[in-house]
Amino acid sequence: MIFKRLELGLFVRFILLLGMMYLTLHYLVQYTWLQVASGVLVMLAQVWELALYVTRSNNELAKFLQAVKQRDFSQRFNEHTTNSSLRQLHASFNLINDTYRQLHIEKEAQFLYMQTILQLIDTGIVAVDEETGEVEWVNDAFKKILGVPHLKSIASLDMRYPALYEALQSIKAGDNTLLKLKLPSGQSQLLLTATAFSMQQRPLLLVALKNVSATVDATETEAWQKLLRVMTHEIMNSVAPIASLADSLGRHLQHEREKKEQEPDAAPDPELLQDTEEGISIIKKRSEGLLRFAHFYRNLNKSQHLLLTTVYVQELFNSIDGLMRPQLEAQGVELICKVSPQDLQLNADVNLLEQVLINLLLNARRAVQGRPQPQVLLAAHELNGKTVIEVEDNGTGIPEELLESIFIPFFTSHKDGSGIGLSLAKHIMLLHKGSIDVETKEGVGTVFRLTF
């Protein structure tokens, strides 16, 4: 529309100019010099006006572009001019100015919003020019953590915090660095995280600084508490059967002593002597196993050297039976041991294997509590050339949603559990190059299977 009106204006002015040229030539032929001079002046005026008319739009456009270059969108163009083409042009310029001004306001609002958020968070954030080390922007949290009133360049940190300065110099995008630093608030651990971006073709590095001392301390405290619970749980698992067996032996000996006082000449009961000897042997073996477990757990994060020996499964089951049967029968739980064939054997660390079986039997005892005719079966057999030991119960079973988590360290569904028994059993089986599997059915029971 603007161009159509421009062309119409040019056409009208061109026709008027031709008409004036015709009149001037007419008066020139008649030698009427006054009219000729007047015609020439009028034509010059028309040419001047035509030039102004043609260049006016260009001048207005040049003025607008200059304002855009200077990012000055406050300029207003007259939309009430007599020139209709300029009216539309000015209206377009004003619309563009209004749009850019609105975008600028929204951008400023977003920047202010983000800046306010970054100032409120307790994580220090600094944007650094990668080439010069100059600080482009830093929030108050960063300065507060380091105790500096202002920061123009990371080089200014060299004198106060040389370790931090070196870390900021060497850190790359995507890196996470944990740094111990003595701050005005005391010894602290700082976590540095970096990401890269560019602004106006300048490479910048955005570094987040977080004081994680409290988090690390809380994590360490929680880890110690878990470790203490685990050690207490595992030690009690072994000490309780030992104490129960020792109590039984003590009652038998007390009974024998009273009998001796009443019948001084009576010979010692050979069955009692045999039971006492077996009980002492079991206590001695389990105590040695408990000490070995404590040593094993202390070095759990190191490579383990198993004390592999030839283990006769029947003898292993006899030891477990003598240790666990009194405790299970005291709670009304029947323990059944089966080995097929009787001479079945395997290469294993007998003390750690005993610890695994004790944990599984104690879990089975918990599972059958409150069940009619509670029963736990400890069985061993050969399958495809491999030795398999199973601990089966007729308890409540394990819910399907928990099956994937039961071997995760510190996971437990019981408030008095440590969450380490099954994960430790799996670790011990992996050290033996074996495996531990579970089959369960809710309301029917559970089978834990050790395969060597």
From TrEMBL:
Localization terms from the record: Membrane
Pfam hit, one: PAS_8
A cellular-component GO term for this protein: membrane
Region: Disordered, residue numbers: 252-273
GO BP terms, alphabetized: osmosensory signaling via phosphorelay pathway
Reaction catalysis annotation: ATP + protein L-histidine = ADP + protein N-phospho-L-histidine
GO molecular function: ATP binding; phosphorelay response regulator activity; protein histidine kinase activity; protein kinase activator activity
Keyword Magnesium: no
SMART domains referenced in this protein's UniProt entry, alphabetically: HATPase_c (SM00387)
EC class of the enzyme, as a word: transferase
EC number per UniProt: 2.7.13.3
Residue span(s) of domain Histidine kinase: 230-452
Basic and acidic residues composition bias: residue spans: 252-263
InterPro entries, per the entry: BphY/WalK/GraS-like, HATPase_C_sf, HATPase_dom, His_kinase_dom, PAS, Sig_transdc_His_kin-like_C
Record keywords, A-Z: ATP-binding, Kinase, Membrane, Nucleotide-binding, Transferase, Transmembrane, Transmembrane helix, Two-component regulatory system
Start-end of Acidic residues biased regions: 264-273
Residues that span the membrane, as ranges: 12-29
Protein name (record): histidine kinase
